[in-house]
Amino acid sequence: LHHFTVSGGNWQYANFSGAVFRAAAFEGCDISDGVFLESRLDGAPFRDCKLTRCSFQRTPLKGVDLSTDNIEGLLLNGPELEGAVVTMLQAAGLAKLLGLKIKEEQ
User: Which residues, in sequence order, are bridge partners of residue 50?
Assistant: First the structure.
């Protein structure tokens, strides 16, 4: 999929498995429970999207900025996160996916 922008709308449960995105953008969308299995995002930005429980298994997120998105409950194996851009708060939540336990300072 090349040169397009998805702006707004309900894309819940959308299945983008195996898709290759180039010069694509997602803005203000609800893609909850969506599937990006074995996809290529090539830096496709997500801005202000709801990605709750989205599956990004075997989809590299290198260079993908998720900092403005709701990414609670992402489904992935861990290596997909390498090079993704997230906030500190998001990073703490994603740490659990990597098996880390966060201990609060005393």
Answer: 30, 70
Strand order in the sheet with 46-47: 2-7, 22-27, 46-47
Quote the pTM value. 0.87
The 3-class SS string of the chain reads CEEEEEECCECCCCECCCCECEEEEEECCECCCCECCCCECCCCCEECCECCCCECCCCCCCCCECCCCECCCCECCCHHHCCCECCHHHHHHHHHHHCCCCCCCC
- For residue 1, the model assigns a pLDDT of 67
Q: Is the pLDDT of residue 24 over 80?
A: yes
Residue 78: pLDDT over 90: no
